[in-house]
Design a protein that fits this description.
Layout lengths: L13 E2 L2 E5 L1 H13 L10 H12 L7 H12 L5 E7 L6 H6 L1 E6 L1 H8 L7 H9 L4 H16 L1 H16 L20 H14 L3 H14 L1
Antiparallel strand pairs: 1-2, 3-4
Length: about 220
């Protein structure tokens, strides 16, 4: 079952009147996941460090978004197992108890890396997928070879698969992201996915001559 939390993973949420515009919460959660999945040093992966990086990009004061970052981490990303504590940085100032305990910094779990594959763009897909499949279970490995091939030949199609899979989880159409199993999408009605599947299966049945003709046809219309 899906982990329960006070909030929800909102990375695909859009405004009701502007379906193409992501909400502020969606943008914030995407930014956090992107930072935690990057090679940022530990200080940049604390709550304050994350707030400062996002604020700098948006040209705002980091203290204005800190509470939102705190809430996304503590009420959503950490309880859902998308992020986890990666260590603690010592403090030289402040209350003694806090100095001894240190400031936590975070990184993405395997589940978090999968979520990152759905939001961080085609250019980041190959290195992120390698990182994800390094931690794969035997039942997940069957998808690695074909997806790796598709990343080269059909990157947009492959990226859309990761997006549809994670979005289905966000919309409660999939109970859990892991283990990674694309057969979970079979019971989800998605017109674009059905069309893509139909084209791929039909193309495989064509003769070599017909395949060449089909390629010419597709190049004429796209």
């Amino acid at each position: 079952m899906k982990n329960k939390s006070k909030g929800k993973l909102a990375i695909f949420d859009t405004f009701k009147t502007k379906n193409n515009n992501l909400t502020g919460e969606a943008k914030r959660q995407r930014a956090i996941i992107t930072i935690l999945g990057s090679n940022v040093n530990p200080a940049g992966r604390t709550r304050t460090g994350i707030s400062q990086k996002i604020a700098k990009k948006q040209e705002i004061t980091w203290k204005n978004i800190y509470s939102g970052i705190f809430r996304d981490l503590d009420e959503i990303l950490l309880p859902m197992g998308i992020a986890e504590e990666n260590g603690r940085l010592p403090l030289k100032r402040g209350p003694k108890a806090l100095q001894e305990k240190g400031i936590p910094y975070y990184h993405l779990t395997k589940k978090g890396i999968l979520v990152g594959l759905a939001i961080n763009g085609i250019e980041n897909m190959v290195p992120q997928s390698k990182k994800f499949f390094e931690k794969s279970k035997p039942e997940e490995e069957k998808f690695e070879k074909i997806l790796t091939k598709f990343m080269i030949t059909s990157p947009i199609f492959t990226y859309s698969i990761f997006q549809k899979y994670v979005k289905a989880f966000c919309e409660d159409k999939i109970n859990e992201l892991l283990p990674f199993d694309l057969s979970k999408l079979q019971n989800i009605s998605d017109e674009n996915l059905i069309i893509q599947k139909e084209i791929v299966l039909a193309f495989g049945k064509l003769s070599n001559k017909e395949k060449k003709e089909a390629v010419v046809f597709l190049e004429e219309i796209t």
